[in-house]
Amino acid sequence: MKILKGCLITIIGFVLICVVGYYLYRNSVMSNLESSSKNIEENWKKYTENINLRNEKLILETIKNDTLQHYLKTSKNIEKKEFSREFEYIEYKINEKLMSENMETDFNEKLNSNVDVYNQSVRVYNIYRVTFPNSLIARKTKYPKSFNYFDIIRYGIENQNPKEKRRKVDNWIKNGGIRPE
């Protein structure tokens, strides 16, 4: 009887420790997902604020290029709550027109830095979210499966058309072969 009682107490203790450990770990994962998600949102907000400042400054300057004016106004009207292909394409066109007009802006370094910080925070979140056993817990949460990188545009240098680059990457994913640059 003493042996049975001892085994039962040991099993109950072990189950209790496992349940408490699970809830502590779950709370830790939820807290980390929330802070990483907020960090991404803050970094995106800083980036879009700098975009808006750049656009306002360029609109106030006397720009002769009608196409650039059109893209600046379009950028102003795009909702920038999160990354979108439309936003990426407009930024590509603005950068392209600024390069063709040889217009240097003091925002290039700041925007590139903002993009790097944003992408790093996205990388941290995405890796944490898919790492086992975090992925088991994160599956049942309100947090997104992943955030998108903003990695096609570099300000102040000539870039490849994002639509073209996405098409090549999608083709590479589908058919394999050498990864497109």
TrEMBL record:
SUPFAM superfamilies xrefs: LemA-like
InterPro entries reported for this sequence: LemA-like_dom_sf
Alphabetically ordered keywords of this record: Membrane, Transmembrane, Transmembrane helix
Residues passing through the membrane, by range: 7-25
Listed name of the protein: LemA family protein
Organism: Flavobacterium flevense
